[in-house]
Amino acid sequence: MVISLHNFSNKMTAYTKQDVLLQATDVCLSYDGTPILHDINFSIRNIVRPGVSQGQVISLLGRSGVGKTQLFRLMAGLQKPTSGSITINGNKQVEAGDMGVVFQHYYLFEWKTIYQSLRMATSQNPLLKGNEKEAIEKWAATFDITACLHKYPQQLSGGQRQRASIMQQLLKGSKFLLFDEPFSGLDVCVLDKVVDMLLQVSMADELNTLIIVSHDIETSVAISDTVYILGKEEGGSTIKKEIDLVERDLAWHKDVRRNKAFADTLDEIKASL
Ligand SMILES: Nc1ncnc2c1ncn2[C@@H]1O[C@H](COP(=O)(O)OP(=O)(O)OP(=O)(O)O)[C@@H](O)[C@H]1O
C-alpha cells in the first residue's frame, strides 16, 4: 500500500513502509535499581521507493545524560536490557556482531594496514567470497581512501580513519550501521563529505539502515528520514517524540536546510529536548 505522495521540485516521490527491520519492545534498563531507560518502544521499517535503492536513516537525539549511549549499546547488542527486547529481521534478539558499530573513536587495528583490516572484514562476509579485493577497491574509491589502503591507521587523518572504519563495517556485510557521534569534531568541508558518504551508504542497499546518535541536531535531521527524541521522565528516559521526516517532505532533499519547514522542525526538536 502506498502511504503517501509528495510533490517536490515537480517530482512525485511515492514510498511505502514495509517489513519491520528493527523492533524495540518495552525496553527498560536500570543499574542497581536506578532506572535509566523505561518503556522504549519503536519500530524501524523498510522504506521502499519505486526505482530508488532507498535505505533508512534514523537519528536518536536527546540531552546530555538522557541515555542515548545506553540505548545505542542495547541496539548494538553490547548490553542486554533489564527487561523488554530488541529484535531484528523478524524475531532475532539482537546480539553483539549483528550490527556494524562505528564508534566515535574509530576502532582500527593499529598494527595492520588499512587493507589488511578491510580484508579481515571481508572474510566475515560470505557474499563477497572471491571478490574481496574488488569490493575493497570499489569502496575505497567511493570513499576516496585508495591512497591510504597500504598505510597504518596512525598515518591517516581523522576523516580518513572514519571512512576506513565505516568501510570496515560495510564490508562485513552489516545492513545495520550504528554511528556514535559521526559529526563531532569535523570541519565544515569534511562534515559535508561525511554527510554525502552516509547518504551514499544508505542508498547502496535498500536494507541498509543507519542509526545515528548525535548532538548535532541540524546535520542529523538533514540526512534522516526519522528522528527519535529521548527525554527524561520520572521512571527513566523514554522516546518522547517520533518525527517522520518523510511525511513532512523533509527527507531525501539535498537542499532541505533552505526549507522553512526544516527550520520549524529544528525549533520543534529543540523545544522538546
Ligand atoms: N555503568 C553505569 N552504571 C550506572 N549508571 C550508568 C552507567 N552508565 C551510564 N549510567 C548513567 O546512565 C545515564 C545515561 O547515560 P548515557 O551515557 O547513556 O547518556 P547520553 O545521553 O549518551 O549522554 P551524553 O550525550 O552526555 O553522551 C547517566 O545518568 C549515566 O550516569
From TrEMBL:
Q: Which SUPFAM superfamilies match?
A: P-loop containing nucleoside triphosphate hydrolases
Q: Name one Pfam family in it.
A: ABC_tran
Q: Where are the transmembrane segments?
A: none
* UniProt xrefs under InterPro entries: AAA+_ATPase, ABC_transporter-like_ATP-bd, ABC_transporter_ATP-bind, P-loop_NTPase
Residue ranges of domain ABC transporter in the record: 22-255
Keyword Nucleotide-binding listed: yes
In the record, what terms sit under GO molecular function?
ATP binding; ATP hydrolysis activity
Q: Which UniProt keywords apply?
A: ATP-binding, Nucleotide-binding, Transport
- Is the Kinase keyword given for this protein? no
This protein's name: ATP-binding cassette domain-containing protein
